[in-house]
UniProtKB/TrEMBL annotation:
Its cofactor is Mg(2+). It is found in: Cell membrane. The gene is cobS. It holds the Pfam family CobS. This is Adenosylcobinamide-GDP ribazoletransferase. It comes from Gilvimarinus gilvus. Signal peptide: none annotated. The keyword Ribonucleoprotein does not apply. GO terms for molecular function: adenosylcobinamide-GDP ribazoletransferase activity.
Length: 262
């Protein structure tokens, strides 16, 4: 493959990642993606997080004059709009699915029930509670950061690290459904996932102190390890909803830790 073809391939993979994970208007430049483009797009998820973070920093600077709490609420609302609530939907599906099947003792029946509910677009009470808690925690964490005088640029950290966590998570687990394309498409090269995640973490660490970056990375490692084992026990692997939920939980964890560390 020539250099031009490689660059075109990587650009298309990045655009696919942007189109899939955000509502940014870049779809007109995306060609019809093939399976190779979709698989390569996974490696650009953290870069999508950086794009989201930059847009959020710009937006937060525009609404900063509205007061800390209103600015935090508007920023989180804009955050949800940018992603089309994709990851929140994954979190909701995971919560509903787990509580629908967690009392079923037969492993096969529990797995089938959980996957069935995950596929159901309806949203139950447990899902609504989870969504309210996550959004509330994000607003409070952002407001707390800004009350402590933290720089707006810290908004970059959560979106990048949360989407970086997807890579080692996919390396640790197997996909639980039949491949259907998109965010859930398995990537066979687990070594490349680990290496790419390490590089993104190193880039984040450059902008933070050693203590800050070490705490955040270790905490995320614990979270993604637990999340991977949890869903392996429930369904024998992961789904796209599991990845979306991981992003939301990771963003909340990073924001809370930043409040504690600042």
């Amino acid at each position: 493959m020539s250099i031009n073809h490689k660059l075109t391939h990587y650009l298309q993979a990045f655009l696919y990642a942007l189109v899939f994970l955000t509502r940014l208007p870049v779809g007109k430049w995306l060609h019809k993606p093939d399976s190779r483009t979709i698989s390569t797009a996974v490696y650009f998820y953290p870069l999508v997080g950086l794009v989201l973070g930059l847009v959020l920093v710009l937006f937060a600077s525009l609404v900063a004059g509205f007061g800390t709490w209103l600015a935090a609420a508007l920023t989180v609302s804009f955050w949800v709009m940018l992603t089309g609530a994709l990851h929140l939907d994954g979190l909701a599906d995971c919560m509903d699915a787990y509580y629908a099947g967690h009392k079923i003792t037969d492993q096969k029946q529990r797995r089938e029930r959980i996957l069935q509910v995950m596929h159901d677009p309806a949203c139950g009470a447990v899902a609504l509670v989870a969504l309210v808690l996550v959004i509330m925690l994000k607003v409070i964490a952002l407001a707390s950061l800004w009350q402590q005088g933290a720089a707006l640029s810290l908004l970059l950290v959560a979106p990048v690290l949360a989407r970086t966590a997807i890579l080692p998570f996919m390396a640790l687990a197997d996909y639980a459904r039949q491949t259907d394309g998109g965010v859930s498409t398995p990537v066979n090269n687990s070594q490349s996932l680990w290496i790419t995640a390490f590089l993104y973490c190193a880039l984040v660490a450059v902008g933070l102190s050693f203590v800050h970056s070490a705490v955040l990375i270790v905490a995320l490692a614990v979270l993604l390890t637990y999340w991977s084992r949890f869903w392996f026990k429930q369904i024998g692997g992961y789904t796209g909803d599991c990845l979306g939920a991981l992003v939301e939980l990771s963003e909340v964890l990073v924001l809370i830790l930043l409040v504690a560390l600042c």
